[in-house]
Design brief:
50% of the residues lie in helices and 8% in strands. It is mainly α. The strands form three sheets. It has a two-stranded antiparallel ribbon. Strands 3-4 form a two-stranded antiparallel ribbon. It has a two-stranded antiparallel ribbon with strand order 5-6.
Length: 369
């Protein structure tokens, strides 16, 4: 056997190794190129056409919460790329205000816009507080804009408009069209601080608030869909829990009590629903016995309401109340009452409940509305 025949297998192995290395290098280069192309794509505008979107940066909003909303509103392509970009750029905050962002802007241009002073200094700032009803919302809008309370109520009574909202937002159902409901959007306009243009339309305000509700409800969508209660029932109960409890830990207990009463076929017996039923604000005056004992689909202290929720929500509410309803503290209590400090006292029987009330009254710790 000569030397040349011995070297042939070695040369073939070497050629295979070289081919394999070339394939690996080419594959690596292609992967890098694809990564670069994908990265540049995610940095690019979401649209080639100009479309101005009004985007609100709320007071105290983090750059990351802003990024999530930009993605949810279809203004940027990818939140992860946005997050990487702001980290590398060292951007820590944006100024609160109302911005006009064009969907034809690149991610770089959008972030530069939000990092500048190009927000609308003439925007209107309105803070809607948790636990307030539609009547209070209407007053706030009337006091801060050219929209009258009647204008706001008229839009709420527009059946075609309500139908269009039900079609647009997954959490709005035909339940809000019940003829016994006072205001279809009660409880669905999320309490927060908002910025609007100088002369907003009623639709602008409602849409902005519902967009925020969409963000909040979507975070809990899986839990909402797995609940034995529908979204309207969850919103309704959350609004009651908001008004009945001050502290988050108490709200979870209160939600547990309400579930106990519903499961046992008892009425909720909630004073706040009776006040709402007769359109009396808490603190305005005491309820009469006739009102308490009168049937109304909102009044859970009245007749024919055993084992039932009110026909609809009685106010807006915060995340802690929604969380309380979705994740209540399991307990064996059926009654509760709050003292002057806001602390809630729970009891298992009506007799225990009355004893607590007598003690609170005798010690001057009874809460008077």
């Amino acid at each position: 056997m000569n030397l040349e025949s011995l070297n042939k297998p070695k040369r073939r192995k070497l050629k295979k190794k070289i081919k394999l290395m070339i394939i690996l290098i080419v594959s690596f280069i292609i992967t890098i190129l694809i990564g670069i192309i994908a990265f540049l794509f995610l940095l690019s505008p979401v649209s080639n056409k100009s479309e101005i979107i009004e985007f609100e940066v709320g007071s105290g909003s983090s750059v990351y919460s802003v990024g999530k909303r930009l993605e949810e509103k279809g203004i940027i392509r990818n939140y992860f790329i946005y997050k990487l970009y702001v980290k590398l750029s060292g951007i820590n905050e944006y100024k609160a205000g109302l911005y006009k962002i064009d969907k034809s802007y690149s991610l770089d241009k959008i972030i530069k816009l939000l990092s500048s002073d190009n927000y609308n200094n003439k925007s209107i700032k309105i803070t809607f507080k948790e636990g307030k009803n539609i009547r209070w919302v209407a007053k706030e809008i009337a006091e801060n804009t050219s929209i009258s309370e009647n204008d706001f109520y008229a839009k709420m009574a527009d059946k075609d408009y309500i139908d269009s909202l039900i079609e647009k937002y997954w959490f709005l159902t035909d339940d809000i069209k019940n003829e016994n409901i006072y205001y279809p959007l009660e409880g669905y306009l999320f309490a927060d601080t908002y910025y609007f243009n100088e002369n907003p339309k009623v639709e602008d305000i409602i849409t902005t608030m519902l967009d925020q509700s969409d963000i909040i409800f979507s975070k809990y969508k899986a839990k909402i869909e797995s609940s034995t209660y529908g979204i309207h029932e969850i919103v309704t109960l959350s609004s009651i829990v908001e008004s009945e409890g001050i502290y988050s830990i108490d709200r979870k207990m209160i939600a547990g009590v309400f579930y106990n009463r519903l499961n046992k076929g008892m009425s909720l017996g909630s004073d706040v629903t009776t006040y709402y039923a007769f359109k009396v604000d808490i603190g305005e005056r005491d309820l009469t016995k006739a009102e308490i004992n009168t049937y109304n689909p909102y009044n859970t202290r009245g007749p024919l309401m055993n084992g039932k929720l009110p026909v609809g929500p009685i106010s807006n509410f915060g995340k802690s109340s929604l969380e309380a309803v979705l994740e209540p503290t399991l307990n064996d209590y059926y009654y509760f009452v709050a003292d002057k400090s806001g602390k809630t006292h729970f009891s298992k029987t009506y007799e225990e409940h009355n004893n607590i009330i007598r003690e609170l009254k005798s010690t001057g710790n009874w809460l008077e509305w």
